[in-house]
Design a protein that fits this description.
363 residues, alpha/beta, Collagenase (Catalytic Domain), seven-stranded mixed sheet, three-stranded mixed sheet, 8 helices, 19 strands, 22% strand, disordered N terminus
Length: 363
Amino acid sequence: MIYRLLQTTVIAGVLTLVANQASASMIFNLSNQGSATAQMMAGMAEAGALWSALLHDPITVQIRIQAASLPAGVLGHTDSFYDPYSYTDVRNAMLGDRSSADDFSSASKLQSGSVHSMLINRTANNPNGVVSATPYFDTGLGGPGQAGPENNNTIRMTTANAKALGLSSAHSILLDGIITFSTQNIFDFNRSNGINAAQLDFVGIAAHEIGHMLGFVSGVDVLGGNAAAPGLNDNQLQFVTPLDLFRFSSRSLGAGGGIGVIDWTDDSIDKYFSANGGTTPVATFSNGATYEASHWKYNLGQGIMDPTATAGTLMQISTNDLRAFDVIGFDTAIVPEPSTFVLAALGLLGLGFLVLRKMHRSD
């Protein structure tokens, strides 16, 4: 059975979770819309505690929880709220946020100037044909397939990610997102004695969803969602995310590209996460062909942001996960040994159909 957790881009009593460590001051305000069970709320608090112990940013993340009868095979989905920022402001924020070795190496390799170059495809004005899969370089400086620089000078990020980078109020009371869980009785809520062989780790799934809200998302899913003719021109696709700034391939670093030039294509070619401008691959991203691009590549055990999980498996946050969150603006407790926090081998229960869409926030 394949299960999906839907994430879309985009309500009663409040539970506040504060990290126990003095240095870890990330707070999650969890509000129940009224349909979530007590077990779901407790599991969400536990999932938040996992992130609070590892991400040390003094911010408050506002999350609304609900339960609903979702389509067959869907476990849950996340609606995150996004705001646009200039590439210049985001780059400056990342330069100012540096504290770890990855921060310094990744931020120093970001492209200078007010625009960033990318390898792109599937655009309506692709020089190779309308929504052609053949990639081309979009520099933001004009030329074939470049209707304007708006997609090269705009970064769209989750509101929680913006808080971590200091681009928005750290303790805003506006909602950062909504997580909806299925009402199917297939979850194990108690991690203390392992996960039942016939059930799924609810806390791990909740942590995965929180990860999307915090910023583990790719605008390539928007590109792929508009890949049918007539499509959109390049400058209309203003959905590059902070995580996408660290998405590379040998193609993007090759002729016409170079260090720091990202691969923002929707095709079956693997793209990888790198913390030094693409020189050194760290982990492989999902390419969107099987599971959505806002994940690690499936079934490789790379981290909790893998789109797959196995019944009976305890899901854990990995070093790969932490390194990704580190470079997009969070202050992390990076573990030096890759074996520590590594996610156990994952199987065939999919956790991830992602669709990004713009939503307006309201209380």
